[in-house]
Amino acid sequence: MKNEMDSNTSPTNIVSGDGDRAPLKALTSGMWEQIFNGVEEPFLVVRPDGIIIEANEATLKAAKKTREEVIGQGICKIVHGGRLPHIKCPLEEYLKNCTPKAEETRLPGLYGEYFFSISPVKDANGEVDTILLTARELTRDEIRKVDYIRNANLAALGELAAGVAHEVNNPITGVINFAQILLDTYDFDPAGIDMVQKIMKEGDRIATITRNLISFARADIGLREPVNPVEIVKTSLSLVNHQLQKEGIRIVTDFPSENTLIVADFRKLQQVLLNLISNSRYALNDRYPGFDERKIIEISCFENNDEEHRFFNIIVKDYGTGLPQSVLEHIFEPFFSTKPPGKGTGLGLSISYGIVKEHGGNLYVNSIIEKFTEMIIELPAGI
User: Fold this and answer.
1) Distance (Å, whole) CA 23 – CA 126
2) Is the predicted pLDDT of residue 284 greater than 90, yes or no?
3) pTM: predicted TM-score of the whole model, two decimal places
4) Are strands 296-305 and 250-254 parallel, antiparallel or unpaired?
5) Domain limit, last residue, from 217, 238, 270
6) Percentage of the chain exceeding pLDDT 70
7) Distances from the Cα of 244 to the Cα of 84, 280, 284, angstroms
8) CA 223 to CA 25: how far, in whole Å?
9) Per residue in 34-63, pLDDT tens?
10) Do residues 56 and 63 make contact, with C-beta atoms less than 8 angstroms apart?
11) Residue at 87 is within a domain
């Protein structure tokens, strides 16, 4: 007599090593739950709109949150730490489009560097109703590879930007010169004079942008000589200290007791410091418009040596708005800005990056939204 069983619990015959068939029981929901939580890497199930509907124990451990703090939240908030209102999260956009993707990225919500995979799951009708997200922590070698690729992409982008800038520079110089000839040659009424002057002003603005693009690609390093990087920091602070005090921003410094010399262009590195301090100032004023004891910029300098190299680090850290993780790998690209439209050109960090690279160093960013931003300058130490 044949036994009839439910399809969810009916045995499946499998062939054992000696050719006999043995029953294999279907996995129950409890067994699936054990497997799900047994996965050692973060594993999440989300809706196409980015809301988390399930997360394994490894996710909760990596995020340092309880299940109640994760389930029902947006994916960007949990893995990225959040985003700025005027900036879209690329991860959320991929989910909306149900696009499979695998990428290396930093996920501060999970406290580490991860290889992140997006896998859409279709229902019986062929529609995507859930998406699986898996995160595998990167090894040290993989992190170095990611940094190398990002640096190579930035270098290629810089060369492209410089080529475009050169092509724009000649015609815009002609526009400015012809406008000046018009102004010197013809008698215009006040309205005409104003119009020609506006042409020259906007032409000068374009010329400045093209020069900045060229600086990003090929930083114009002038006189290099032995300098104390701490003196570069102190001189930069002396130029902006009055404005910072006026806005209630405190500077906290941590300098080494012994002098360290590096070979550098004092003026160019000062330009980098002033730009980083300006960005910190903007972030602090944006988060705390009035007086607040948390309006602090910390600047520290120290030697950081490994087995093969000697480095000197300058770190500028603020506790302002922070930066969303979804944009960190783009912030050194020309014209990319986290500020609202009209608040910045998006060239300051790209120029600073170019200057530091020309000095044989590197510029890194470490940030968590609504917590802090840390800009790390790494320069070869010694002369």
Assistant:
1) 32
2) yes
3) 0.60
4) parallel
5) 217
6) 77
7) 25, 11, 11
8) 76
9) 888 888 888 999 988 889 999 999 889 888
10) no
11) yes
